[in-house]
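Recap quiz, item 2
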Amino acid sequence: MTNSEGRTELEELGEFGLIQHLSKHVEIKNKSTALGIGDDAALIDAGKGQVVLTTDMLVEGVHFDLTYTPLKHLGYKSVVVNISDVCAMNATPSQITVSIALSNRFSLEAIDELYSGIMLACKNYKVDLVGGDTTSSLSGLIISVSAVGFADKKDMVLRSTAKENDLLCVTGDLGGAYMGLQLLEREKSVFEVNENMQPNLEGNDYILERQLKPEARTDIIKLFEELKVKPTSMIDISDGLSSEALHLCHSSEVGCNIYEEKIPLDHQTIEMAQEFKIDPSICALSGGEDYELLFTISQNDHDKIKGDPNISIIGHITAKGEGCQLVAKGGAVHELTAQGWDSLLKKDK
Amino acid sequence: MTNSEGRTELEELGEFGLIQHLSKHVEIKNKSTALGIGDDAALIDAGKGQVVLTTDMLVEGVHFDLTYTPLKHLGYKSVVVNISDVCAMNATPSQITVSIALSNRFSLEAIDELYSGIMLACKNYKVDLVGGDTTSSLSGLIISVSAVGFADKKDMVLRSTAKENDLLCVTGDLGGAYMGLQLLEREKSVFEVNENMQPNLEGNDYILERQLKPEARTDIIKLFEELKVKPTSMIDISDGLSSEALHLCHSSEVGCNIYEEKIPLDHQTIEMAQEFKIDPSICALSGGEDYELLFTISQNDHDKIKGDPNISIIGHITAKGEGCQLVAKGGAVHELTAQGWDSLLKKDK
């Protein structure tokens, strides 16, 4: 990958390649570090309980577009994406720190809007903002949030512990956040051509909210407790079902079968996908930003979750050698791939 | 501060004004949050021990200039500034997360350099890198580090607990990092005028290292344990002695007297300050980035620290009503102010 000038371009590696590359030389030295890089969050032993630590960075122009993202929603979302990572460990979020870098383009009122969203998320999820850093940036807004959570050691769920024959489940519905983004991008481009055009967002509240104000599934963590179910593995869906299923299977050294007809989709997602001439399943598989939970349970626990409106069983875990497969509606079997949105969607155009 | 358009400019508030403003509406909801915003790090109850959590963000063009900052040094420093915050709680750092946003201007080799510095700091300070986020940026490099540390509840030292008559102490020497920066900036401007000029940095290793590769005083935390001294309050010096002494006194609701002649200065700092026609004391008071510890001890502990080469007693704590004072070498008394570097230095020119 190194070219004649001894320079390797980052784009050749991609984000996960870069993370893998950077993680290679990381060694664990402290006994209290129960789990380091490689899952949704780190685990730190703290006597009888374990501390969960996770962090995420949102960059203007990369993760959000302020032309259609209200700052309050952005603040809310920046907290939620971290809380979702804590949930994915089956832990309860408790503290966050928020660091922001911003240019003088932002007024105090704008920052207040941002923080009102941050504080609303803190209130709704009962987490404490315990620190952070504010600094200037030469261009744009950058938000970096770290979240801490706790759980008993016995309750922690990793992404690396799925077993053959486990059921593969997902919460809520998928693909909505992606279709919300497509709608916002379309209306933005219409507006750019003609400033007198009003954006046509009516009747699409659900997919817009999925994109602009997602929620983390702390309710599912409580539900697991009530149902007395401990998932055998779990990961949150930030990058699309395909990518997350591959992460989970790779970490657990297993394969999986996912049945396309079982993938939960909202009717607004389906309608908007049809309007955009995109296969709705592709939105779920490759869209990302749904912040639902993908998890596996033992077949013995099937009766406990059966019929719960929050949970869909979409497939099962197979032996590693069988690979990760998508069984399409027609019965054809495709290998699951984690291509980016663009490359997948281009095929459909 | 709001102008006719209902817009308040951030520059009118300054960083601390903004933090204070943003902290106003923060409420603590979790019993495990032993201490939130307002000190160097947050405290999280974890059974018998407490978890310390802190975070800092470094932005290219604001906190560092890559023309003269080697990426390896930058990585090292980004970890050290967080470890210094953990030290300032009298705690032992144990884990960090590192998030970076970078533009495609950076090659993999460049990022490797950055991470080699991060990993060297992890090795030297025995901390584990347990997570993070990597993302693209439209311009420049942004590094956000969060650090976790632990201590027994009884050993934690806050900045808000200094008492009248306590001795005010500082570790190491001050002002060096600032003079290192001045030297680098001067040689950069010479180079910009004539590219054939070689930077003249010889004989200034110490102040250059203070700027480019600072160290956190974990050794002092161990020393306190050995000497059986628990400071009555502590803060790390990232923004200059004046600013930190004012923070400490304000949080503790006390005043202080600092004696100019007692402020520890290295001979390289003094020489370079004289070359730049800056009062060396001003470098210490307003320069920042020294990452030494400013702390108070009870007078009863004086004998324990007396004569230790790492510690200088620079003054004492007074009643709140007496204010924060600098007693100059000539005997004149000045009110301590936390002006930025520029405004202070302009006076001397």
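Residues 340-349 of chain A have pLDDT under 50 and may be disordered.
Chain A touches chain B through 77 residues (CB under 8 Å).
End of item.
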